[in-house]
Write a structure and sequence with these properties.
By secondary structure, the chain is of the alpha/beta class. The protein has one domain: Purple Acid Phosphatase, chain A, domain 2 (4-Layer Sandwich). Helix content is 23%, strand content 23%. The protein is built from 6 helices and 13 strands. Strands 4-5-6-3-2-1-13 form a 7-stranded mixed β-sheet. A 6-stranded mixed β-sheet has the order 7-8-9-10-12-11, covered by helices on one side. Helix 1 links the parallel strand 2 and strand 3.
Amino acid sequence: MKFFITGDCHGEFTRFNTLPTDEEIGVIVLGDAGFNFYLNKTDEKKKKEFCANHPNITVYCVRGNHEARPQDLETMATKFDATVHGVVYMEPQYPNIRYFLDYGFYDISGYNCLVIGGAYSVDKNWRLIRNGMTEETNNPKKTGWFANEQLTKEEMKDCYELARNFNRKVDFVFTHTCPTKFQPTDMFLHGIDQSKVDNSMEEFLEIISYQIGWETWCFGHYHADRVERPHVEQYYRDIEELDELHDRWEKYDETHELPWHIVKGPMFDA
């Protein structure tokens, strides 16, 4: 299976129309795919449409913040997926929509990969207030805010131990948000008091970034397509073959040059 990578879809999948239709394709979505947001028939319709429109594509979702945890849905089951050499969540009626665990290691197309999902929603308070709810009375079907959007302290500890005991360098780290040092601060939303933003996930990923050896880090969440630092890429609407991404940075290590069309963030050369 040939693998591609893309960023937040939020239920809009027209970018998949550019992919080959005559071979089996896998696509890694770096969070907020848009399959488990409404928690009603709208989600079911979206899943049915995706499976009907893209029968040759299997999508593998990193969990974002604007979506329910797959394990919270009664229709989900776990299975060992030989294609990625790891356990995933899947609904039997939608076999080509799969969800990575909230954290874990996978072997994808021969690449060692670490996946870590979750992030904080900076629009949390807005979502609660406009529906007259609090964190305690929240109903995610109405607010679109999920209280367990970030990893818990216990999950972070478990993930840290998992990474600490992994004795190989990984080719890719796939996350929804990113380590603190890679945050695209120029893209922070105006009007948001950053002192009230919970950066627990970013701080945790910062620790992980020093705990393991890695080649390329890919994340979504901030809605841009650009390179933040060497070997650190942010994805949104772009969809790119995983082998091409790997080869680009392998070549960069030799030439220190990137293709002309690659957009660099303001901190790339810092």
